[in-house]
Amino acid sequence: MSAVTVKTKPWIQELIEKLSVLQWVLTFLSMGISCSILMVSLLFTRLWILSVLYFTWLVLDWDSPEKGSRPSKWIRGWRMWKHFSNYYPIKLVKTAELSPQKNYVFGCHPHGIMSAGAFCNFSTEGTGFSSVFPGIRPHLATLAGMFMMPIYREYMMCAGMCPVSKPSLKYHLSQNGSGNAVVIVIGGAAESLNCTPGHNSLVMRNRKGFVRLAIEYGADLVPVFSFGENDIFHQVIFEEGSWKRSLQIAFHKYVGFAPCLFKGTGLLFNSWGLLPFPKPITTVVGKPIAVLEMAVPTERIVDHYHRLYMQAVLDLFDQHKVSCGLSEEHQLEIL
After folding, report:
1. How far apart are CA 143 and CA 251, in angstroms?
2. Is residue 239 scored above 90 in pLDDT?
3. Looking at 3-7, 221-225, 240-244, which range is the least confident one?
4. Mapping DSSP to helix (H, G, I), strand (E, B) and coil, where does residue 263 land?
5. Quick check: 5 pLDDT over 70?
6. pTM for the predicted model, two decimal places
7. Distance CA 204, CA 335 (A)
C-alpha cells in the first residue's frame, strides 16, 4: 500500500495568508478607536492642523455613508483579500441568477463573532463576487456608529459598506439605480453571543424590519447562509441570568454591540491567539423571493413574506448542509 500524501502549503504562503487575516482582525477590533485617539491626540501637537483639516472634512462629509459611500474597486480588489479567503478557505456558491435590473435585500446568516464570510464575500473581491454575480453591487450594512470614527469610516466606505439605517438602505434601494444588494446580518449582536462551533441557531423569528424594507421598495429577498462561520473562533458562553451575561446584554443595549470573550490560534505556533481557526466557510446565496411592492405594508403582508423567508433559509440549510461538511442529522433552529 502506498502512503497517502497530505498536501501542505509552502510556509511563506501560509504566513502571508495569516498576516492578511491578522490585519483584518486588528482592523476590526482596534482601528476605529485607535484612529479616534490619534486624531484627538494630534490636536495637542505641532501637527494639530492635520486634525483640524480632517475634522472639518468630517463635518462637511458627514452624510456620505448614507448616500452611497465611496466604493473603491481598487481597495476591494486588493490581492490581500485573495490571501484572506484562501486562509480558511472561503467559498462563494451561487444557486440562482440575479438580475442587474432589480435591487435585493440579502439576509445573511449566521452572524458569528466577526462575520468573516459576509465581509470577504460582499466587501472585497476575495471570492470574486463581481464575476459570480455580474452587474450586482453589494453593500454590507453595519452599525451606524462605526461611521462616526475618523479614518475608519473612510476605510469602510471604500469597501462599499454602509450604515444599517433607514436613510442609508433607502438610498441604495430607491435612489441609486438598479443592481444593488444591501447585505444585512440579521441576527446581529444578539446572535453573536451564542455562536460556538457546531451550534446552528439563528435569531430571526421576531426580526421583520428587513422584510418590511424589501416590501416598501420592491426589492427581492435573498437568503444567504455561511456554513462554518461559527467554527472559526471558540467563544466562552456565559449562562443565562449570570452577571457576566447580564453585562454583555447591557453593553449591547446601550452601546450597540455585545463584547464576546473568544479565542483563536496564534500566528506562528499552535497556541492561543487572535487569528481565527482555518476552518472552511462556504457562503451559499439562495434563490430570490419576489415581493409585492407596497409603500405601507400591512402586518399580515409582512408576516407572510417573513414566513416565506424563514422557510427559504431552512430549505437552503437542509439542501447544502451535507456538501458543506455537516451530517444529515444537523438541524437549524430559529429563535
Report:
1. 14
2. no
3. 3-7
4. strand
5. no
6. 0.93
7. 6
C-alpha cell recorded at residue 168: 442609508
What was the pLDDT predicted at 256? 66
113-122 burial code (b ≥16 CB/10 A, e <16): bbbbbbbbbb
CA-nearest of 107, 119, 204, 217 to 166 is 217
Q: How many CA atoms lie within 13 A of 140 on its CB side?
A: 27
Phi-psi domain of 268 (left: phi exceeds 0; alpha: psi -120 through 50; beta: other): alpha
State pLDDT tens for residues 268-285: 767 788 999 999 999 999
Residues 6+ apart with CB under 8 A from 237: 193, 194, 196
Parallel, antiparallel, or unpaired: how do β-strands 180-185 and 137-142 relate?
parallel
The string of DSSP codes covering 298-322 is -HHHHHHHHHHHHHHHHHHHHHHTT
C-alpha pair distances (Å), 88 with each of 124, 165, 175, 268: 15, 31, 37, 16
The CA angle 36-84-13, to the nearest 5 degrees, is: 125
